[in-house]
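Onboarding guide, step 5: your first structure request.
Type a short instruction followed by the sequence, for example:

Predict the 3D structure of this protein.
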Amino acid sequence: MQYDPVKAKIGKLVNRAPWMRRMFYGLLDRLLLRTWHVKRALREFAAQHPGKASIFDAGSGFGQYSYRMWKMNSSWSIKAIDLKEEQIADCKLFFNKIGAAPAVSFETGDLTRYKSEGAYNLILSVDVMEHIEEDEKVFGNFHESLAPGGWLIISTPSDKGGSDVKHDHDESFIDEHVRDGYGTDEIRNKLQRAGFSNIETKYTYGRPGNISWRLSMKYPILMLNKSWIFAIILPVWYIIFAIPCLILNYRDVKILHQEGSGLLVVARKDR
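The system replies with structure tokens like these:
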């Protein structure tokens, strides 16, 4: 299934007015399970960096994580890049309208080429690395771009059902993925080769999370990919399933999973 055309249409819709984009961010904040896990990691970083910090949103997409970090601490300086020019243009327009610029800045960029030596205290990469073939090159750029003691937070599919792939003959749910998911040893070894230490990996999207993902993301996206006529019934769909999804997300965050279709990785650069 192609996800980018769906994202492009949603982007055009929510960019019509700042209140629509804020509402969209709010929905993503609550319904997307990965956001719950990422927010928890961001709160841990924020507890250790209550003052100014320089942050790199690597593969910013709709800009929802840049927005969340700006709301968490307006003294943080946030640089966001993405390959898609249209999404960057949309984000620039919105963040200028709400007065977040220049604290939050956006530009088009390629993570395999972008690095800024020792510039950042935190690099956040959410649902990005599964799209990049040259992942070790990007990890090396991340390490070089972090200041000593800097954090790297990654959210990505795992090899335990990530991209909805459970067997060798299964196809990825998202056509744009170049890999179905990472094994914990694989991503740890790649990050170590890039220079990182103190690497923590945690499975996300256990059984409750997988059910929530199907109800809140997979089935709605499949419907929209088939025909945008289904957009008419989506509000009713989410009225029915929103509360069950919130409960399932809460359960997934509270459980320490032995396996899960997602991975949350926190790595640090030596001081």
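Each response can be followed by summary notes, for example: The beta strands are 54-58, 77-82, 104-108, 120-126, 146-157, 197-204, 262-268.
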